[in-house]
Amino acid sequence: MVDADGQLTRWTRPNGVSMDCGGEPSGLRPGRRRDGQSARKCSSFLGAEMKAKADVVKEALLIELERSRVQLLAEWSSNGMLDLIDERWNARSEDMYVLHWIPEQGEDIYDILVDGKSVLRVEISRSPGVDPLLCAISLEQYRATFCRNKTCRRRLAGAMELSARRSRR
To answer: Domain coordinates of the chain in residue numbers?
Structure first.
């Protein structure tokens, strides 16, 4: 949008988001005005836009975690894995989120947040007749040992948030 002096007062991004620019022309670097002074409104809006993108990424992560939960429960209930977990670990829960999955040649390894309280590491052998290995890990130990990168910490935080939402229902 252009004001009476012919200066751009509103800037619309390709994604349809618009911002108040305080006279920033579209050809200049965002956050700077034509006179060289910083445009606080623009730079603060760009920060808000980055936060909005982070919110979209977080929402996509939560959707992915929820889908993995539904798929895990459907697959494991059909092959008896949930009964085995209940038998060995006394955790019959619908509140299970896959934090990490490693498909290897001889086995599949899953890290699963159960009830938002602990992590269950499950190793399922692809060889017939071999029982799955189950290992319970506390959240603190999982964070310190296995969760060393930002992606893992984000998945864990997202799964804990979903678990907290389910427990409130």
So the answer is: 10-51, 79-168
